[in-house]
Amino acid sequence: MTLETLAVCPACGSQNFLDFIQCKDYTVSHESFHVKRCGTCGLCATCPRPTTENAAAYYESTDYISHSSGAKSLMDRVYVLARHFTLAWKYSLVKSTANHRSLLDVGCGTGDFLAFAKAKGLTTFGTEPSAKARAVAQKKDVNVVNSIASLPTQTFDVITLWHVLEHIYDLPGTLDKLKERLNEHGTIFIAVPNYESPDAMHYKNTWAAYDVPRHVWHFSKNGMHSLLGNASLSVKKIVPMKLDAYYVSLLSEKYKADGKFTPAVAIRGLYNGWKSNLLAKREKNYSSLIYVVTK
């Protein structure tokens, strides 16, 4: 498989990349990948990484649940349950910022959030590069296309990226496109894992949210502020996703147990998820963070 290296940090322009951690792809290839950290702003990158042409091969697995509507394993059922639980919470967060009427969900997967928002009366569109996930989404009577470039010519009150930015190769170009699609007083919601969280520190290279090589970027608060500031976007507030600590810890424990999900694994995962949220309070370094962003 052809891999490519990264020379310049897209967040700050630095060429000062340092070795950070080496992680395994537990989902598809079982290969190991290096993660490097920008010594200036802290943005991390999977480097070397698959090229855009061959990246799709690392998503082709029945274990990649976010592109599927089914739930075959117990962990899949946990994921689907958590996804269902967070739909209303995400929607209430979006609605709390302003009286929004139109929404674009970038990387919408199987379209659950789009369908939920549409049922609440919003005009919705989604983008999803996976043909498999897009086909599932379109059965829910929502408008989904393969890319931002394929959208109708219009702007949106709200743009959401729920755990999507870490997958996108061209960060500056994508953020510029999102700004073009955002209404003057609109809001972007960007949810990403936080590698400075207590659960990330605890699990180290078995932390499930590294998810190499599908995650080509790995974010800290400083790295995100640098990236968004460089794109002339302003962070209005940061919202924790506390449920993520439990799911990520459960999955990390499963990785440590060679793929076995036993009662002991579940207990350790739930305990470490709870502990992560407890320890995260002081610095607000939760397992995943939502950045509420405006122009």
Strand content: 15-25%
Q: Which radius of gyration do the C-alpha atoms yield? A: 18 Å
Q: For this entry, what is the oligomeric state of its chains?
A: single chain
Question: How many β strands by DSSP?
Answer: 13
Instruction: Give the integer mean of the pLDDT values.
Output: 92
Question: Main sheet: which strands, in order across?
Answer: 8-7-6-9-10-13-12
Major sheet: size, sense and barrel closure?
Answer: 7 strands, mixed
Structural class: alpha/beta
Which blocks of ≥5 consecutive residues have pLDDT under 50? none
Sequence of secondary-structure elements? EEEEEHEHEHEEHEHEHEHHE
Q: How many helix segments?
A: 8
Q: What's the N-to-C terminus distance? A: 39 Å
Shape: globular
Into which percent range does the helicity of residues fall?
Answer: 25-40%
Q: What does this protein structure show overall?
A:
With 295 residues, this protein is an alpha/beta fold. It has eight helices and 13 strands. α7 (242-256) crosses α8 (263-280). The N and C termini lie far apart (39 Å).
Question: How would you describe this structure in keywords?
Answer:
seven-stranded mixed beta sheet; 295 residues; 8 helices; alpha/beta
Helices and strands in order:
Elements: E1 3-4, E2 17-24, E3 32-38, E4 44-46, E5 49-50, H1 74-97, E6 102-106, H2 112-119, E7 123-127, H3 131-138, E8 144-145, E9 156-162, H4 171-181, E10 182-193, H5 198-203, E11 217-218, H6 221-230, E12 234-240, H7 242-256, H8 263-280, E13 288-294
Parallel strand pairs: 6-7, 6-9, 7-8, 9-10
Antiparallel strand pairs: 1-5, 2-3, 3-4, 4-11, 10-13, 12-13
Helix pairs in contact: 1-2, 1-7, 7-8
